[in-house]
Every structure is written in structure tokens, then in C-alpha cells.
């Protein structure tokens, strides 16, 4: 059976000491294996990245950008192949995979402008004949650790900018769907990146822990679940590293009584069930203000959900695919069970759908649950499946309080026709990314992405302008060239 290995110093590095199965989630069958890197293999990658750093750091910024331009072209040329690889291991339908890839490519596009982004700050004559400027220098070897749900896009949030800034990189992708991630890194190599600048090590906790503790790693970017994000942030910090760790979510949409209900239903359908709800920006809770709005939402949603198709990635007419593993399928079903047990009303039940020809696949159908309350486990925790829960409240303030009290603060949205209410919401809600009649307010590549509260540990958001700050350190230089005529005497006073 095919084993997905590593990419170290520009070479494929097979490694079959420890392996894990990769499944095709639509068939439920093992399709490949992935190598799980040992400490020694990760150290080999760090050594390669360390060796490549001095030359890459000193490569003119225009030449670094030129690699990104070629990389972008290669990603576009090979888009179909990448989307197919994503479909085979993640289960995502091709239109959804194409969207993910496009959002990833936009980060490469942003990195193409690195010369402009890295320009420093300059001040002339800060003192007599003294000039001062700040420049943004790369950190050295940096690492990225990524989740299964966006095997192309999330890694592309990280390394194009890190590398364009002059760093060398080690990526540890998700072990559940690593093939497209590895293939994309090979395309970067093909774009002319010198060996060792970009390395991929596949693996699990053993590999991650080396990246978190090895002194040669300067910074770590992480995206994944909150419990692991917190562990990554604490361990990286303890080991003196800069760290940004993006975690899980529970994204609420407020549906106001004045909302265009048909539009809200259409938007919620895609945002709740797209990608089987396995998005950190999925809208998984609709907070309906008033029973009239709630009843209209639930009845229209119930009708609209009848036309949804869940099925394999091989049929692009499907709306969404399976969830990632059998274990995750059982977990999502378990949350639906618990909501039912806690007294919520299962309006549309997606447990155990029968998909002809894919009876062993890890499918969960679109599920709608009404009368959910904040004490329920299914409300408190991230389900990460195609489940939309409806919470009924009486006022907008009550709806906002619910969102502000939740431990996560990744994304949120309001559906309304009232500009004043929308403005108040955007100003006061304790969430990092806010949509107004926009269900998935994922920032474009020239803004930055990040949640608040327990959805992000660290100070800087991912990609965009924050990535320049995260992957560089500021150096401020003050200079004077005294000629013999202006030499000054000794002074013990603080310079002013
Ligand atoms: P995960 O936390 O299980 O895994 C993420 C990464 O951490 C993987 O590379 C994995 O190998 C590694 N890992 C797992 N357990 C580890 C451990 N004990 N020690 C060290 N490393 C470990 O997440 P996942 O299931 O792959 O992804 C889904 C989660 O990611 C969801 O919670 C989702 O909300 C979140 N996510 C967040 C964002 C965001 O931007 N905030 C984006 C995408 C996904």
C-alpha cells in the first residue's frame, strides 16, 4: 500500500517505521498509509531548514517573490488534481475543494507583493545628522501545524508569507488527509524554491513535540482544536517561541424579525452544512429573535433541507460529503442524541443516512434541532458536523449576551434589514470576525484571520498584514557618520 512520506531538503523521504491508516471517508475503506515521523526525522528537517536559512534570508526580496509568482501559476495549473486529492481523503465535493484552494491561492498572491509589505520605516535627522530606521528581519526556522479540514488552504495561510519574509519552514500537516498538502509543497519546490527552505514532516504528537521544544525553531503557527491549541501555545511559550494558535469555534447567527427570511435560510444552509459543517467558521447556531422569526426560520429551513444531497466527492452534484472518520461520525451522532435527551426537538434527523453504494461511508445527513438551550452540551461544545441548532430568545440584547458569554469567539453574523442594529452588533459583539448579512465572514487574504476568546491563543492573527509582523522581528537602527569637524565630547545624559 502507498505510504505518504515526508519532504525534507527537497527530497522525498520515505519512512515506514511508524504509520497510520488514511481512509477514503466516502467508502470507509483504508486507501493509503501515512508515515509518522520520529524525533530523528523531525530533527533532520530542522537541520535542513537551518542550513538553508542564511542563503534564503539573503536572497533579494524580488527573487523570493518571483518564486511565489511561479508557485501561484502551478497551483492554478494543477487545481483539478489538488481538488481530487482533497476529495479522496477529506471527502469534500469538488466545488467546495475548489473554493478552499482559491482562498489558499489568494494568500500566495498576497505573498507575491512581499517587497512592498516588507518596506521598513525611515526617519531622517532624528538628531543632528542622525538617521533612524526600522526594518523587519526574518526569524529563522519556523513551523506550522495544521488541521484536517482545510488540507490546502490552512497550510497556505502560513508558509507562503513565512517564506516570502525570508524564513525557512517546517510544516506538520494533519495525518488524516496529508496527500494534497504534500503535493502542494512539491509544487513550491518545482517553482524554484531552494532545497531545505520548505520541508514537510508528516506525523502526530511525537513530531509536534519536537517542533515545540527544539531550540532551533523560532516560531510556531497552529490551527486546530482548542484543547490542542492551548497545549501548543503554552508549550511553545515555555520554550521561548513566538506562537499563534487558532482553535475551535461555535459560531452564532442572529436572525432578527425583520430579516429577509428566504435569504437568511439560503445563507444558513451553505454556512451550516457546507463541508459537512467541518469548518471553523461554520454557522452552527441560529439565534432567532422572537417566536415568529423562529417559527418561520424552522419551517422554511425544514423545507429547504429536503433538497440537500449528502454523498461522495466523486459526484459533484452532491452538496456536501462525509465527515472525516468513523469516530467523528459517532461523535456527531452522539451530540444529536444528547440534544434529544436534554429536551431539544430534532426537526430534521441526519443520523445514519443511507447512501446507495457507500453504505460503509462516514456520512451524517443535515440535521436541524430546535429549542436548544445554553445548558445543553450540544450547545456548549463544538460539534463540527452538519448540525444546525436553533436557540429562541426574545430580544437582540439577549441574543448578543448569549454570544458574548460563549467560550468561543471565532465568527458570527446578523441577518437584519436594520442598519442601526447591525452597527451596534458589529461594535459590541465579542467575536473576532463579524458578518452583516454575510454568513461566513472569512477575511480576504489582505486582511487577517482570527477569533477572540478561546478561539485564538496569541496576539497576532493568521495571514495578511499580521503575518508580516508574526514572521518577522523589528530591528531599529540609528546611524551617524561623524566627520572630524562634528565629533562630540563625552555625555552621560540620556540622549534627547
Ligand atoms: P486537531 O486539534 O485534532 O489537530 C490539529 C493538528 O494538531 C494536527 O496536525 C494534529 O496532528 C495535531 N495534534 C493532534 N493532537 C495533538 C496532540 N495531542 N499533541 C500535539 N499535536 C496534536 O484538529 P483537527 O481535528 O485536525 O481539526 C478540527 C479543529 O480545528 C476544529 O476544532 C476546528 O474548529 C479547528 N479549526 C480552527 C480554525 C481556525 O482558524 N480557528 C481553522 C480550521 C480548523
Structure explained in plain terms:
By secondary structure, this protein is an alpha/beta fold. It folds into two domains: 268 residues, Aldehyde Dehydrogenase, Chain A, domain 1, CATH 3.40.605; 186 residues, Aldehyde Dehydrogenase, Chain A, domain 2, CATH 3.40.309.10. 39% of the residues lie in helices and 23% in strands. The strands form six sheets. A seven-stranded mixed β-sheet has the order 15-16-17-14-13-19-20, sandwiched between helices. Strands 10-9-8-11-12-22 form a six-stranded mixed β-sheet, sandwiched between helices. Helix 1 crosses helix 8. The longest helix is centred in the first third of the chain and has 19 residues. It is globular, with a radius of gyration of 25 Å. The chain starts with a strand and ends in a 17-residue tail after the last strand. The model has no long low-confidence stretch (mean pLDDT 97). The protein binds nicotinamide-adenine-dinucleotide. The site of nicotinamide-adenine-dinucleotide has 27 residues, from helix 8. It holds the Pfam family Aldedh. It is an enzyme of class 1 (oxidoreductase). GO terms for molecular function: methylmalonate-semialdehyde dehydrogenase (acylating, NAD) activity. InterPro entries: Ald_DH/histidinol_DH, Ald_DH_C, Ald_DH_CS_CYS, Ald_DH_N, Aldehyde_DH_dom, MeMal-semiAld_DH. Keywords: NAD, Oxidoreductase.
Q: What is the helix fraction of residues, given as a range?
A: 25-40%
Give the strand content. 15-25%
Strand count, sense and barrel status of the largest sheet are:
7 strands, mixed
Total tally of structural domains? 2
Please tell me what the overall shape is: globular
Q: Which topology of the largest domain does CATH recognise?
A: Aldehyde Dehydrogenase, Chain A, domain 1
- Radius of gyration using CA atoms only: 25 Å
- Report the bound ligands by name, code or SMILES: nicotinamide-adenine-dinucleotide
Number of helices: 16
Identify the strand order in the major beta sheet: 15-16-17-14-13-19-20
| CATH class category of the largest domain | Alpha Beta
**Helical/strand content category:** alpha/beta
> Architecture of the largest domain, CATH level 2?
3-Layer(aba) Sandwich
Amino acid at each position: 500500500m502507498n505510504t505518504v512520506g515526508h519532504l525534507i531538503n527537497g527530497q522525498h523521504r520515505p519512512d515506514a517505521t511508524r504509520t497510520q491508516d488514511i481512509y477514503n471517508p466516502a467508502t470507509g475503506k483504508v486507501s493509503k498509509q501515512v508515515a509518522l515521523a520520529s524525533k530523528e526525522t523531525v530533527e533532520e528537517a530542522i537541520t535542513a531548514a537551518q542550513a538553508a536559512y542564511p542563503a534564503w534570508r539573503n536572497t533579494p526580496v524580488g527573487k523570493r517573490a518571483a518564486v511565489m509568482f511561479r508557485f501561484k501559476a502551478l497551483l492554478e495549473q494543477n487545481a483539478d488534481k489538488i481538488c481530487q486529492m482533497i476529495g479522496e481523503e477529506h471527502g469534500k465535493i469538488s466545488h467546495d475543494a475548489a473554493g478552499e484552494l482559491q482562498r489558499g491561492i489568494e494568500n500566495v498572491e498576497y505573498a507575491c507583493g512581499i517587497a512592498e509589505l516588507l518596506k521598513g520605516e525611515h526617519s531622517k535627522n532624528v538628531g543632528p545628522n542622525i538617521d533612524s530606521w526600522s526594518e523587519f528581519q526574518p526569524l529563522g526556522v519556523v513551523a506550522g501545524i495544521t488541521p484536517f479540514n482545510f488540507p490546502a488552504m490552512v497550510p497556505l495561510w502560513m508558509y507562503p508569507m513565512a517564506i516570502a519574509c525570508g524564513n525557512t519552514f517546517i510544516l506538520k500537516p494533519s495525518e488524516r488527509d496529508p496527500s494534497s498538502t504534500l503535493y502542494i509543497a512539491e509544487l513550491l519546490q518545482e517553482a524554484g524554491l531552494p532545497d531545505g527552505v520548505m520541508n514537510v514532516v508528516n506525523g502526530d504528537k511525537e513530531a509536534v513535540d519536537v517542533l515545540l521544544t527544539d531550540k532551533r525553531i523560532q516560531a510556531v503557527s497552529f490551527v486546530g482544536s482548542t484543547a490542542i491549541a492551548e497545549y501548543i501555545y503554552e508549550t511553545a511559550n515555555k520554550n521561548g517561541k513566538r506562537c499563534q494558535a487558532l482553535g475551535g469555534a461555535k459560531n452564532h447567527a442572529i436572525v432578527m424579525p425583520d430579516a429577509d427570511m428566504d435569504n437568511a435560510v439560503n445563507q444558513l444552509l451553505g454556512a451550516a452544512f457546507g463541508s459537512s459543517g467541518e469548518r471553523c467558521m461554520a454557522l452552527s447556531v441560529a439565534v432567532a429573535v422572537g417566536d415568529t422569526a423562529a417559527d418561520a426560520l424552522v419551517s422554511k429551513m425544514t423545507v429547504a433541507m429536503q433538497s440537500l444531497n449528502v454523498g461522495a466527492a466523486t459526484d459533484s452534484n452532491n452538496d456536501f460529503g462525509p465527515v472525516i472518520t468513523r469516530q467523528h461520525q459517532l461523535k456527531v451522532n452522539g451530540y444529536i442524541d444528547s440534544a434529544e435527551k436534554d429536551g431539544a426537538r430534532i426537526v430534521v434527523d441526519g443520523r445514519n443516512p443511507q447512501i446507495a453504494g457507500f453504505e460503509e461511508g462516514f456520512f451524517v445527513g443535515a440535521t436541524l434541532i430546535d429549542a436548544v438551550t445554553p445548558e445543553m452540551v450540544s450547545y456548549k461544545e463544538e460539534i463540527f458536523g452538519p448540525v444546525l441548532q436553533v436557540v429562541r430568545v426574545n430580544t437582540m440584547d439577549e441574543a448578543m449576551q448569549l454570544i458574548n458569554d460563549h467560550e468561543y469567539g471565532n465568527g458570527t453574523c446578523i441577518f437584519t434589514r436594520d442598519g442601526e442594529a447591525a452597527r451596534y452588533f458589529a461594535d459590541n459583539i465579542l467575536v473576532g470576525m463579524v458578518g452583516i448579512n454575510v454568513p461566513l465572514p472569512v477575511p480576504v487574504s489582505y486582511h487577517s484571520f482570527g477569533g477572540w476568546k478561546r478561539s485564538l491563543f496569541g496576539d497576532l492573527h493568521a495571514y495578511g498584514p499580521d503575518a508580516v509582523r508574526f514572521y518577522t522581528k523589528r530591528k531599529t537602527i540609528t546611524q551617524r557618520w561623524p566627520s572630524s569637524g562634528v565629533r562630540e565630547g563625552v555625555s552621560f545624559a540620556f540622549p534627547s
